[in-house]
User: What shape does this take?
Amino acid sequence: MTLYLLRHWRGELSLPVSYLVNGFLLSVVVTITLSLIANGLLAEMHSALLLSVVIIVIWVFFFAIALWQFVGIWRSAVNHMARGGKRGWAIITRYMVIVGTIFAVGAFVSQGVPQLRETFEYAASESDLSAHEQRMQNGGRNIEFTGGFTFGVAPKLSHFMEAFLGLRRSQ
Assistant: This one.
């Protein structure tokens, strides 16, 4: 596996393999996998700081994969011409690498930066919010929730409510 990764990085794989398998197909697989992992983690996460770390790891992984893909595809396009391949395919491929790089940077600027900024701000301000408390009222017919609605409160409140079925919404 390491040899394969290195061969792609050096541009030693054929242009179709570099572009279609390591570029297109891998992008689809990584996007679906990261989405499933992130959604699974976020559903169970109860810490804003941990959320920030997960988002950083996802973006670092995204850039590491993109860098490996773009460099390997670019080098494969250069080597494609040296191996006697059609110059047109090499030019189109390098153009697509430039477009892909622009889109990757654009995705980070439009999505990654706001995600990171918001999660760090939330993690920093979470301690400023007042503590929350929930309790039963009216003989177990109502629930009262007071305090700050901090990260992870919704699942805790949901579990609390599930423990006492038949609750009515508090006014």
Notes: The radius of gyration is 24 Å. Helices lie at 2-10, 15-44, 48-82, 87-126, 153-163.
